[in-house]
Amino acid sequence: MRTPYAFGPSCFRHAFALAGVVMTCVMMPAALSHAGENFRLSSPSFVEGGTVGPSQIFNDAGCNGPNHSPGLMWRNAPAGTRSFAITIFDRDAPGRGWWHWAVANIPANVTSLPENASASGELRKFGAIEARNDFNVDGYGGPCPPPGNPHRYVVTVYALRVETLPLAQGRPAALFDREISGLSLGSAQITVTYGR
Question: What UniProt keywords apply to this chain's record, in alphabetical order (predicted)?
C-alpha cells in the first residue's frame, strides 16, 4: 500500500545545509516514521533478496518441506498502531498471484513471531486468526512453485489502526488482504525467492 510522504521538521531545519538530508526526508513515508526511523521487518528465516530455506517449503503438491512459517520481527511501528497483520504473497504465480499466508489480529504489543508459529498454535495463544491460503488450507502454506524460473515471495507486516478485523478464521486470504489494506497505517516488507 502506498503511503503519503512527509516533510518532517528536521527536513526543513537541515534543508539548506545538506541536500542529501532533504532527499532522505522527502522519500521517508510519513506513516512509517517512528522516533526518526522507518517501520522495519526482519527475519532469522529470510534475508531480503535471499532464497527461501528448506524449513519454509510446502509439504504437498510435489514439494516435501516441513512447511514452517518463518520467524519474523518488526520494530518502529507507526504511532496509533493497534494491531498487526502479516501476509506472504507470490507475485510471480500465474494469474492473480498466490496467497501463502495471511494473519490478522496480532496484538500491538507483539513484535515478533517464532518460526512455525502457524502450525504450533502460537498464534492462537494471543487471539490471532489465519486465512485460508491458495492451497485451500488454513494457515501457512510455504513456497512450492512449478518447475522453472524462481518466484518472488513478498512478506509484509502491516500496522493497523484497529484492534481486530471483522473476519473469521479460515476466510480466503484475498478477503483478509482487502480488509488489511483499508485499515493500514503503514507496512514493512522482505522479498525472497524460491524455484525448483
Answer: Signal
